[in-house]
Amino acid sequence: MATTAPERAAAEGIRPPSVAECVDRGRAARVAAPRSAHDRRCLAGPRPDPVEVLAEQDGSREPDLLPIRYGRMAASPSAFFRGAAAVMACDLAGSPVSGIDVQLCGDAHLSNFGFFGSPERRLVFDINDFDETLRGPWEWDVKRLITSLEVAGRDRGFRAADRRQILRTAAREYQRAMHSFAGMPTLEVWYARADVEEIRRRYESQLAATGRKRLARGLAKARTRDNLGALRRFTSMKDGRLRLVAEPPLVVPVRDLYPDVAARSDLERDIDELLRSYRASLPPERRALYDQYRPVDVARKVVGVGSVGTRSWMILFLGRDAGDPLFLQAKEATASVLEPYLGAAEQPNHAERVVVGQRLMQTVGDILLGWQRVSGVDGQERDFYLRQLRDWKGSVEVEEMVPAGMRIYAQLCAWTLARAHARTGDRIAIAAYLGSSKTFADAVTDFAQVYADRNERDHALLLKAIAAARVPAELGV
User: Fold this and answer.
1) b vs e for 166-188, b when ≥16 Cβ sit within 10 Å of the residue's Cβ?
2) Domain boundary residue among 334, 358, 388?
3) Do you know which Pfam families this protein is assigned to (predicted)?
């Protein structure tokens, strides 16, 4: 007699647990990791020099870009926090965890959320950085997000009472959202997303008039950040040919980066190999789209804070004519900062790890997202993932926020993070672990406040290392 799919799954030992079993798992986890234990107590004990932790990442990066990296991190405690995911991973490694794993963003600070265009050409809000993604404890992402809010609130000069309200609001929203997702059918969780109209419906009434205007302005600006906008921003006609414009040291075309013809030819050959291999990683229908474009120019482009020094290429393609551009970014992927504490990723290719993590956590994504491993001009094998450089990408201006605006933004980020975790982990067990009390929210709020103090001390140590010439830094770039 033929067996049904559920019967085969049960026979193979992969029967999904029942709701009751998930609830029991979540509640039992409170014994090993009490919710109140997520407070400042988990920061006790010795730790390595944070500047040395950062320096350990330098060996795999472009040496001439390191001064930009440290210069950007030196700008403020908030900028330091953005680039110090490795430092926080080290600090989180000894903290209590429930034992319920999810796909982690790995760097879930508030600036790594934003708007982008869905394949249906709707503007959606989601996590937008997955360089550190790995499977691990959901608590780590939550603590990094909540701490980033405290750090940003201090940077904006908010009162301590306002900051605490923002932090607790975010923690409680994560808790509320996880309970909501725990009660949903699985497919409904996977379909859930925050598009612009949903965001406006949910939050716009809570904003003052200036906040609504700022939101509308930001959304309008995001829609201009497309391939045609990049064409105007990054290119010019030279000798009848469209070329990427140099803006050293942040944008350097390969013709300027490698004046030696032989060296430039080697790099161009490597990029051609990268593109051929990348094409093979696309599904057939996306390959058909990609094949309608041809590459015409390449430049090195410095991006972000924490990523500065990793290899990143901006590649200009043209389709029908010079008015039909496509910009792809080929960005180097190295080991996640979480791997020393959580183990190596399942994927043998770091770029594949990033792409798989992104597809797991985002409801919709870039239709041209792909990856590949190639040998560079120095003979070293490196992993790259490719995506569109601009696809209605936009972000909220944290530097302009008032406390009420940041509180609403904190809710949106917390809901988004909970949805990503609910897609890839035992959402029912996490909800049961969190319960309905304020215990966890109060604990992580306390953690974030103390960690922000630590972050300020770490930032001061970086400034001291720069002043002593231990660390190279180019300020204001």
Assistant:
1) bbbbbbbbbbbbbbbbbeeeeee
2) 388
3) DUF2252
Instruction: Kindly state whether residue 474 falls inside one of the protein's structural domains.
Output: no
pLDDT at 2 over 50: no
Type of residue numbered 391: D
Residues 146/445, Cβ–Cβ less than 8 Å: yes
pLDDT of residue 343: 96
312 within a domain of the structure (yes/no): yes
pLDDT digits (tens, 9 = 90+) for 216-233: 777 677 677 778 888 888
Regarding beta strands 194-195 and 123-127, do their DSSP bridges make them parallel or antiparallel, or are they unpaired? antiparallel
Mean pLDDT, to the nearest integer, of 162-174? 98
Residue 200 sits in the same domain as residue 299: no
Which residues partner with 238 through β-bridges? 241
CB of 60 closer than 8 Å to CB of 464: no
- My answer on whether 164 and 272 are in the same domain is no
Tokens of 87: 């430092």
Return the beta strands (E) in 319-394 as ranges.
325-333, 370-375, 381-388
Establish if 477 belongs to a structural domain: no
313 CB neighbour count, 10 Å cutoff: 20
pLDDT, tens only, 73-113 = 999 999 999 999 999 999 999 899 999 999 999 999 999 99
The token duo for 341 is: 């504490």
As for how many domains the chain has, the answer is 2
Residue that the structure tokens 């930009």 belong to: 68
Alpha carbon 363 to chain centroid, angstroms: 14
261: pLDDT strictly greater than 50? yes
Nearest to 459 by CA among 58, 51, 91: 51
Tell me which of 358, 388, 418 is where a domain ends: 388
Overall residue count recorded for the chain in this entry: 477
pTM score, two decimals?
0.92
List 235's β-bridge partners, or say none.
244
3-state SS assignment for residue 251 = strand
**Which of residues 120 and 32 earns the better pLDDT score?**
32
Say if 395 falls within a structural domain: no
* Residue 402 CA: distances (Å) to CA of 75, 108, 204: 21, 21, 15
Could you tell me the two tokens for 336? Answer: 């996640």
User: What is the per-residue pLDDT across 269-300, written as a single tens digit (0 to 9) for each?
Assistant: 888 888 988 999 999 999 999 999 999 999 99
Parent domain of 319: 227-388
Q: Summarize pLDDT for 6-53 with one digit per residue, the tens.
A: 444 444 556 789 999 999 999 999 999 999 999 998 898 889 999 999
Using the Cα atoms of residue 87, residue 309, residue 146 and residue 461 in order, give the sign of their dihedral: positive
